[in-house]
Amino acid sequence: MPRYILYQRDDCHLCDQAIDLLARARLPEPESVFIDDDPALEARYGQRVPVLRLADSGIELDWPFDLAALQSHLR
């Protein structure tokens, strides 16, 4: 099971920014879940994407999250 799940949309510049931030934080590559074709995920995450879910704790970070927020939740 991946440590991180990134809920995102196709052609989402904010999602691209989130992926860049995760790379700068040197986190393992997250599992990408695209919500576009899933009505349940669309209802849950539609206005919030990108959302990073920490699989171990279930914590979800809505965009905009930053390096400090990531580090505080990863301790």
From TrEMBL:
Superkingdom in the source lineage: Bacteria
Protein name stated in the entry: Glutaredoxin family protein
